[in-house]
Write a structure and sequence with these properties.
L-valine transmembrane transporter activity; binds adenosine-5'-triphosphate; L-isoleucine transmembrane transporter activity; 9 helices; 6-stranded mixed β-sheet; alpha/beta; ATP binding; 4-stranded antiparallel β-sheet; 10 strands; globular; ABC transporter ATP-binding protein; ATP hydrolysis activity
Length: 239
Amino acid sequence: MALLALHAVSKSYGALKVTDGISLAVEEGETLGILGPNGAGKTTLFNLVSGDLRLDAGRIEYAGRDVTGLAPHQRCRAGIGRSYQVPQPFGAMTVFENVVTAACFGGGQSERQAWRSACEVLEETGLLAQANRLAGALTLLDRKRLELARALATQPRLLLLDEIAGGLTEHEAGQLVAELRRIRARGITMVWIEHVVHALLAIADRLFVIDFGRRLADGPPQAVMSDPQVQRVYLGMEG
Ligand SMILES: Nc1ncnc2c1ncn2[C@@H]1O[C@H](COP(=O)(O)OP(=O)(O)OP(=O)(O)O)[C@@H](O)[C@H]1O
């Protein structure tokens, strides 16, 4: 049974169909990469899965349960954690306080549990030395790590990552991939939207390409990247 299953999911803004009948299954333990041109509907798909947006049609199942009608906090507590494309930490709070807050309010943990899991997550994401810094004073790499740490603090079984490598140097993106590999080794299922293709290819088991809100390709990374339609639409290359 798939951990996450989308059945003909659709969402429109007025006449603009942003998600057009997408069906997709993600197996437990899998790392799925999502690619697509700007405005293709990738973040919208995440918003539909996390419950930040209500869908117009279709159904979403998670861990064998229909979660279509659940609120975002209910989906989070059920194990769907996510990061946001634009990191949104509480800038006037420390890194530690940000992660504790995510563990308490997103993960439903007691304060005592939240302190413990915040320490573990900060160590795992390489942020322990920054624990007492204000989140607003972090470098871009550390802000991305904090975004990851806040999602991990909710103890997800399914982790949705939205462009977490964007704006990083190649070396920094490599560090982030190494952290994601460790997270994957813990058995966490990941779906990662990313424009930094080499970072995605370093970890994804499978790629799903979206164009104009529809599935353009879905399969093993090398096969998808050499698909002439993907090269034409996404990479701007003529086949
Ligand atoms: N609240 C909204 N109202 C109207 N249109 C919207 C809204 N949110 C998104 N859109 C439109 O929906 C389309 C898909 O947006 P989305 O952010 O999902 O794309 P994306 O693939 O994540 O893009 P990017 O790679 O640039 O982040 C875009 O044309 C966008 O302008």
